[in-house]
Every structure is written in structure tokens, then in C-alpha cells.
Amino acid sequence: MGLSISHNAFDGAYSSFYAFREAIKGFPFEMVFKKPAIVLFLRHSDCDGEIEWEVAGQLAEDLQLILDKALADYHPDHFCDRLEQFIQGCKSAFEAKENLEFA
Questions:
Q1: Cβ distance 83 to 66 under 8 Å?
Q2: Is the distance from CB of 88 to CB of 6 less than 8 angstroms?
Q3: Is the whole-model pTM more than 0.90?
Q4: Tell me: the pLDDT tens digits for 48-96?
Q5: How far apart are CA 67 and CA 48, in angstroms?
Q6: What is the Cα–Cα distance from 8 to 6, expressed in whole angstroms?
Q7: DSSP summary character for residue 33
Q8: Among 100, 98, 36, residue whose Cα is nearest residue 63
Q9: When you count CB atoms within 10 A of the terminal residue's CB, does the N or C end of the chain come out lower?
């Protein structure tokens, strides 16, 4: 059993999702904790609920800045791949005007 987030944003073990969010917290404070959409994502339940599609659109934009930095600094452990997938899922939800669903 694991976590599945709609729009192919994430599908994997809860522990992988935890590690993914912890890695995001390791980026500069201004890139993470001054971005309301990222803060909402980091505080969101990891097993159920939704992130509204409008927030998913902003989250994709904010996380793209983190991905750009991660690619420039080279982050191993498939973090960039997972982040890119999550961003694409957020964009898909936004474009379809559908909430990002955690299950």
C-alpha cells in the first residue's frame, strides 16, 4: 500500500513521499517557506484530501524554481525526476481545472 496522487503526480511508498517533501525543505528558506503554495503542500496530509487546482498551478510554478536549482546543483537519488513528475501532475490538474487528489 502506498500513496497515489491524481494526474500522475506521485505514486509510491509513503516513505518515499516523506523523503521527497523533506528534500524540498532543504532548499533555501525564501524558495520554500515564503511560498504559500509550497507551505500548503508541505503541511498537507500525506494520505488523503485535495489541493485545489488553482493552488496546484501556483505550486507547479514555485516547484519549478526548486527544480531549476536542483538541476544546477545536481541532486541525486532521483529527486529531480520525482520533482519533475510532480510538477507535471500539478500542471495537468491546473489545465484540467481538477483538484489534485491524494489517496
A1: yes
A2: no
A3: yes
A4: 999 999 999 999 999 999 999 998 887 666 889 999 999 999 999 999 9
A5: 25
A6: 5
A7: T
A8: 36
A9: N
